[in-house]
Write a structure and sequence with these properties.
alpha+beta, Beta-Lactamase, 60s Ribosomal Protein L30, Chain: A, 2 domains, 7-stranded mixed beta sheet, 4-stranded antiparallel beta sheet
């Protein structure tokens, strides 16, 4: 638990509390229960930081929310008192703290104080929920991870690029030509249109998407006279509603390449 990450949790908790109309005290501890960052809510609530820190230590020690611990120990009222002897700094058994996990490991806990137990618990729970799975920056902000997509169902890239990149629930493909992967042959514009879209379907399938999930298409044609036959094949293969599209007449590599298409698609699941 870094200071920058703890600051992210504190700011998130304060914002959630403000939306609920409460000014909460917040304590962030590391996995061993050592305070990393503590902030008081209302100036007159002098006890808030102490309560929040004690709750956070308990959640970090047992890797469980304090509300769940209260339920677990409801028939052992004296047990929590013994914990002050084994957990440095002391603990507070009350609602309002949850452990924080990242990549399957506990990195600390957050404790909330200064409001009602139920309100403290909700603020802590929502703050941890906001820190869901995924790569993050030093302050805890979520970073989108780029995942290269590779498949045998489309031609192997001939340059320094991937067939597609997946970022979150979006897939960005490289331009696909109408080349047969097995033979390398390119036919007329209709054949290339069909092959081009088949290649895109293979790439999207490998990324967890499909032709039906395309939201944007960029079409590059060599010859203006190929618009009509290309469009006739295009509407047969791309499911409705048809995605947004941009088109242009451009110079393409190789005399036999008549069309190149790239798409952006969502992963609907």
């Amino acid at each position: 638990m870094t200071f920058e990450k703890a600051l992210h949790f504190l700011e998130t908790a304060k914002a959630i509390g403000a939306k609920k109309g409460v000014e909460v005290s917040v304590a962030i501890v590391d996995a061993a229960g050592h305070p990393v960052l503590v902030a008081r809510g209302k100036p007159e609530a002098w006890h808030g930081p102490y309560m929040a820190t004690g709750k956070a230590r308990l959640a970090a020690a047992f890797r469980k929310g304090t509300a769940a611990l209260m339920e677990q120990w409801k028939d052992r009222p004296m047990f929590p008192m013994s914990l002050t002897e084994v957990i440095p700094g002391g603990v507070t058994l009350n609602k309002g703290a949850y452990p924080i996990f990242e990549d399957g490991a506990c990195i600390g806990a957050i404790g909330i104080g200064g409001s009602s137990p139920d309100s403290d618990d909700e603020v802590a729970r929502l703050t941890v929920a906001a820190f869901d799975a995924g790569e993050r920056g030093p302050g805890g902000e979520k970073k989108a991870r780029k995942e290269p997509i590779k498949t045998d169902k489309a031609p192997t890239p001939t340059g320094p690029f991937n067939q597609a990149i997946r970022v979150g629930n979006l897939v960005f493909t490289s331009g696909q030509a109408g080349r047969n992967r097995e033979t390398g042959v390119m036919g007329d514009i209709r054949d290339q249109a069909r092959r081009c879209i088949a290649n895109l379907a293979g790439v999207l399938e490998a990324a967890g998407s499909s032709l039906a999930d395309i939201v944007k298409v960029n079409v590059h044609l060599r010859r203006a006279e190929d618009w009509a036959p290309f469009n006739e094949e295009y509407v047969k293969l791309i499911p409705a509603p048809l995605p947004a599209r941009s088109s242009a007449i451009v110079g393409l590599r190789g005399d036999d390449m008549l069309v190149e298409v790239e798409v952006v698609a969502v992963i609907s699941s």
